[in-house]
Amino acid sequence: MAWQHGFAALGADFFTELRPSPLPAAHWVGRSSAVARLLGLDAAWLHSDAALQAFTGNGPLAGARPLASVYGGHQFGVWAGQLGDGRAIMLGETAAGWEIQLKGAGRTPYSRMGDGRAVLRSSIREFLCSEAMHGLGIPTTRALCITGSPAPVRREETETAAVVTRVAPSFVRFGHFEHFCAQRQTPQLQALADYVIARYYPQCRAGAANPYAALLQAVSERTARLMAQWQAVGFCHGVMNTDNMSILGLTMDYGPFQFLDAFIPEHRCNHSDTQGRYAYQRQPDVAYWNLLCLAQALLPLIGERDGALAALASYPGVFSAEFMAGMRAKLGLLQARDGDAALIDGVLMLLARHRVDYTIFWRRLSQAVGCGDFEPVRALFAQRADAERWLLLFSEHTTHMDHAQMAGMMLKTNPKFVLRNHLGEQAIRAAQQGDFGAIETLLRLLERPFDEHPGHDAYAAFPPDWAATIAISCSS
Ligand SMILES: Nc1ncnc2c1ncn2[C@@H]1O[C@H](COP(=O)(O)OP(=O)(O)OP(=O)(O)O)[C@@H](O)[C@H]1O
Ligand SMILES: [Mg+2]
Questions:
Q1: Atom number, ligand 1, closest to the C-alpha of residue 252
Q2: Which residues surround ligand 2, an ion (CB under 5 A)?
Q3: Is residue 246 part of a domain?
Q4: Coiled-coil intervals in this record (predicted)?
Q5: Using an 8 Å Cβ cutoff, are 118 and 158 in contact?
Q6: What was the pLDDT predicted at 473?
Q7: Domain region containing 337
Q8: Contact in structure between 208 and 214 (CB atoms under 8 Å)
Q9: Is 40 annotated as a binding residue?
Q10: DSSP alpha helices (H): ranges in 109-210?
Q11: Which of 54, 190, 338, 446 has a CA that sits 20 to 30 A from residue 41's CA?
């Protein structure tokens, strides 16, 4: 593999070079051939022992210069001081511009009290959800593979170790900037900002009076678009600390995330989030709060407060416009019209009032628009009259539209398959018994979540009762 040294060229203030720590008796758990193709990896090589060892951290990849980077962050609203890649080790950046990172590859100078490891359970969730998000068309870090090892890892119980190989154009987080601001290392802060602009936001240098304010605005707008996509698809991240916010507007760090089952706007998916700070409906506001932290961090470069705040001014407008566009697509509304907002507010209130399954509702509505039979949609509501009122409004609003065209759009927007907690859990339990078949099946479905996949309806069904008892915390 050919490498370049983008982030690595920033120098020793930004990272520590080190080798991953080996794990015994490594074995494959899952692989994504789509990500392998993205990286130009030979499929046969990805099945080799050399690849298995390299992606477990047991053997080198020729030419790679592994490193762990330093960052800081606000966790649950409180400045946490210096953090850093405590268990993620970047192998390097490919010549085509993909950073390759091993998560769970051993201790680093930033591990604090942690063991540098990740357990199989959380690694499976991260691997599958990375690819599921990509399948949904939502910006995300990607995942090439998971390898496992019988090495014990202590959490609430003793589990086993795994390593996920993640791939992204950059793993730089808001927290990287916060770190150098907090340390009052302005030259390093500027070097990082200049690097990010040159590599990922060149338009912020060309023509902008203040490139750092332009960078902040560009990041803010990407983040706004990401939040709109999360909200529209019903994704709850669970740990939106500033060290988990990507400077590229990618979804990153799949911990206690959840795709909503029933539509409950105040839903919290992180068992450790007792205050509900990261509840589903709060995500757009939390992202804005996180952007204020980024603005604060960039202030030494931007120069004045008003300029930094002005750079964030477009956030609410971009979020609303993108969210409306996303919801219009879910409703099959081909162009914007008066009355769209009322229809969208109406359906969200209806779903919240009746706690209807979010994914199933949208998929059934898409099918109903295609065939004209709305009975399966009505059947989702205990009190049908309430649903009937909204369906009437929807039908009046769309009378003159081409329903076949609407349905076509809706079926490409409203997924049949999302990585519900219980599906992940079933795959995890099987994997813990040495059966990785369910991971492969889920990956295949989630890579193309809008396709019907005949014979796999069980993966698109309502969650079983026990799904409500799954408690996912920060422990991973
Ligand atoms: N088991 C561990 N060993 C060492 N450090 C850890 C461990 N778990 C978490 N950390 C560190 O604690 C901080 C916060 O953890 P968080 O759960 O947000 O991230 P993460 O899941 O480890 O990784 P990432 O954000 O890279 O996906 C990070 O600096 C992370 O590296
Ligand atoms: Mg993290």
A1: 27
A2: 244, 253
A3: no
A4: none
A5: no
A6: 86
A7: 325-413
A8: yes
A9: no
A10: 120-135, 174-182, 186-200
A11: 446
Count the domains in the chain: 2
- Among 168, 199, 215, residue at a domain's last position: 168
42, 49, 243, 451: the active-site residue: 243
What residue type is 293 in one-letter code?
C
Q: Is 244 annotated as a binding residue?
A: yes
Asked whether residue 139 is assigned to any structural domain, the reply reads yes
- Is 255 a domain residue? no
pLDDT tens-digit series, residues 136-163 = 999 999 999 999 999 999 999 999 999 9
In a domain? residue 382? yes
Q: Catalytic: 243?
A: yes
**126 with 103: CB under 8 angstroms?**
yes
Q: State whether residue 472 is helix, strand or coil.
A: coil
Residue ranges in the chain modelled with pLDDT below 70 = none
Return d(Cα 4, Cα 63) in angstroms, integer.
9
Cα separation of 50 and 61, whole Å? 9
Could you read off the pLDDT of 52-106 as tens digits, one per residue?
999 999 998 988 999 999 999 999 999 999 999 999 999 999 999 999 999 999 9
CA-nearest residue for atom 18, ligand 1, is: 244
332 marked as part of a ligand binding site: no
* Structure ipTM: 0.99
> Is the CB of residue 163 less than 8 Å from the CB of residue 123?
yes
140 backbone dihedrals φ, ψ, rounded to 5°:
-160, 155
- Overall residue count recorded for the chain in this entry: 476
pTM: 0.98
| Residue 181 to residue 79: CA distance in whole angstroms | 12
First-to-last C-alpha distance (Å) of the chain? 31
The predicted structure's pLDDT at residue 290: 98
Closest CA to 127 of 98, 166, 160: 166
